[in-house]
Amino acid sequence: MLNELRVRDLAVIQDVTLPLGPGLNVLTGETGAGKSMLVDALALLVGERASGDLIRPGAERAVVEAGFDLNRLPQVAAAVSQAGIDIEEDRLVVRRDINAEGRNRAWANGSPTTVATLATLGRNLVDLHGQHESQSLLRRGAQRDILDAFGSAAAELAAVRAAYERAAALRAEEVELIARRDDVKRRADYLEHVAREIAEARPRPGEYEELEVESHRLSNVEDITSDAERLLALLDGDDLSALGSLGKVTKVLTHLERIDASVAKWRDLVDDAHANIEELTQLLREYVSEIDRDPGRLAQVEQRRDVLYRLKQKYGPEIEDVISTGEQARHELELLDTADLDIERISEARLVADRELDEAARRLSGKRAGAAARLERAVNDLLPGLGMENGRFAVRIEATETASATGIDRVEFLVTLNVGMDPRPLAHVASGGELSRLMLALKVVLAHHDAIPTLVFDEVDQGIGGAVAIKVSEALARVAESRQVLIITHLPQIAARAAHHLHVDKPVRGGLPSTAVRVLKPQERVTEVARMLGDAGDPTALRHAAEMLQRGSGGESGAGDAGKSGRVGARSAASRG
């Protein structure tokens, strides 16, 4: 439910806050006071396109902000959460800023978001019906959704979607496997060559680096041998070698210990040095003995390096990549052994899934056909009372060539507004007022099926009065029993039904007209309804207004006084104009 709407610096609006409540909320006021601009502001908040020329003269930006109560609206709360927005205490606050260049910024519960996200949320929060909005009623997808909601076809629709997803997944898997098989067939000779060449070479991870080290050592074997032997001589060659010198150090240290026992701690250092040099000497002897002086080995290493280098150039850059390429080639060739059987298995499963999809879609179509007939009757029963005496509503269902996630039906709402005219799509024939009343009729019929919590009507009372106005007010009241309704109206019959009555006027502030809104107190409501009847100062109009408000409906009172108060009726017509 929409709790509050605040608008700043938008067209004639300087700073206005609309406090709203459950049930029927009514906005009244003189023509040109800015009532429709408030609806336009709400449209901006739920994703409508905006431009910089909407900003009030002298302001840098326009701001529209609204607070929604999501309590007991699990479907809406789920949509908000799905958009990645945190919900705090069942409350959602959305805001949109528009600057002079037409650039937009949007927030949801204090976090930056996109206008596209606002539009997605808006479809779940508010349904706008007026002359400037893109009506949900005009979109074929929305018309199909309305029919499914009326026909309680959620289970059948879910079955179609599940079947479609299964069939689509199998079809995609089949197409992909066929494409892979055909690709492998085209490249089979090449893949066999790759797999064979790499398998015959039998490269090992790290082998090329090992060969590089060995090649360098073999190429410098004379220098390596000479240096190693010189090191051995320095370590353990004669009395002047490292080991010989350490032996002399040990003897002198032993003599020194007899004189000064405090130097005994040096013994460990000398012993460690002796042990380390002995270990190094042993390693050098082993190293010298293992030096390969075979000239043939160097040729073998270089030949192996050349083999691996060519493989790296073709399938590298590293040996690990070469090995992976060989494995991938073998894996792709193995696909040819099993692909035909796998494709046959998937094809059979897809045919089963297609049959299940067709059956589910036909069940859904049958339910839609029955719902369409009932919806037509229900709406057509309401249209004459809503000022559309010659109006006829129809639902056209056409079969599509292939099933989709929504079935095999193309649903379109048709309307005939005049006798002798052929039914035409709703978007081609309905004016703003007629469209609003058609939607009102649908909302009355769908009162217990539609999940959108807030409905906004502008122009629903266009061109009507008298008994029709009474019927429209009754229809609005019926919808408001299960939904929050916000309506801009010039009809006293509708205003008298309001649970919350707001008045809009346009005083001049700072040399500019500025829309202002206030919640009317009971006596102020009497005066306002009397103004809408024709004259706020006329005793008859005031008495009539009080009676209408007391009864909560303009029905009986309006009908009874229509003949005896021609002056009031005439002024009411003037007021509506």
Structural description of this entry:
The chain has 577 residues and is α+β, with helices and mostly antiparallel strands. Helices cover 56% and strands 17% of the residues. The radius of gyration is 44 Å and the shape is elongated. The model is unreliable at 553-577 (pLDDT under 50). It has helices at 35-45, 74-82, 115-125, 140-150, 154-186, 188-201, 207-219, 221-236, 242-259, 266-290, 295-315, 319-382, 426-429, 432-445, 466-480, 492-495, 522-533, 539-551, 555-561, 566-576; strands at residues 2-10, 13-19, 24-28, 61-69, 91-99, 104-108, 111-113, 126-129, 392-404, 407-416, 424-425, 454-458, 484-488, 500-505, 508-509, 512-513, 516-519. The chain contains 20 helices and 17 strands. It has three domains: 2-151 and 383-520, P-loop containing nucleotide triphosphate hydrolases (Rossmann fold, 3-Layer(aba) Sandwich), CATH 3.40.50.300; 156-363, no CATH class; 522-577, no CATH class. Helix 5 (154-186) packs antiparallel against helix 12 (319-382), helix 12 crosses helix 14 and helix 17 crosses helix 18. Strands 2-1-4-5-6-7 form a six-stranded antiparallel β-sheet, covered by helices on one side. Strands 8-12-13-3-14-17 form a six-stranded mixed β-sheet.
